[in-house]
Amino acid sequence: MHRRLLVCLALALTGACAVTAAPAPEFGAAEVQVRPGFEEWGTGDGGYAYHRLTGTCETLTHAHGRNAAWGLWRMPVWKVTDSGPEEAENGGAQLRFACADGSACIEAGALDDTPDRVTEHVIPFETMDRARTFSARVAGVKAACARTY
User: Fold this and answer.
1) Is residue 3 part of a domain?
2) Can you give the pTM of this predicted structure?
């Protein structure tokens, strides 16, 4: 195995060995569909940097801490609504996501395990502007996803 690899490497260095790639598809031959979504680290500076937010057409995820060690919440995009940016106790801002039908539709836990179910979840932000921007981003994903289905 190693000898074969060395021989091919030697041939490649001399130009005698050629690697061919599969031909590229013609432009327009196949449409690539990009699904709406986002992934971002941080809801501000300092301790806010440990929040990771992702969104797809199915799920909004909030992970807190490295590898979600301090918390993980998975929210079905179509079943939750946010309250709009609110003032937080520490001078920052927050968005409160709640299950629209009052059920416990939000999965809660830590790391990869989300055994608990809750009716609402609050995401902290350093500033009101960051909370507004994130709320608009979630609304944008919902609108884009509605158009793709």
Assistant:
1) no
2) 0.76
CA dist 147 and 144 (Å) reads 5
pLDDT tens per residue, range 31-42: 656 778 999 999
Structural domain count of the chain: 1
Encode pLDDT of 103-134 as tens digits. Answer: 999 999 999 999 999 999 999 999 999 999 99
Structural domain including 60 reads: 36-148
Contact 138, 34 (CB under 8 A): no
Residue 65 belongs to a domain with what CATH number?
Answer: 2.30.29
Q: How many residues does the chain have?
A: 149
Inside any domain, residue 103: yes
Helix (H) / strand (E) containing 145? helix 128-148
